[in-house]
Amino acid sequence: MLQDIPNDVDQCFVEDIVAIKPTGDKIQAFLNYVFETYIDPSGLFPSDVWTEFKAKTNRTTNVCESFHSRLNGIFNWSHPNIYNFIDQRIKKKY
Question: pLDDT value at position 68?
Answer without folding.
Answer: 77
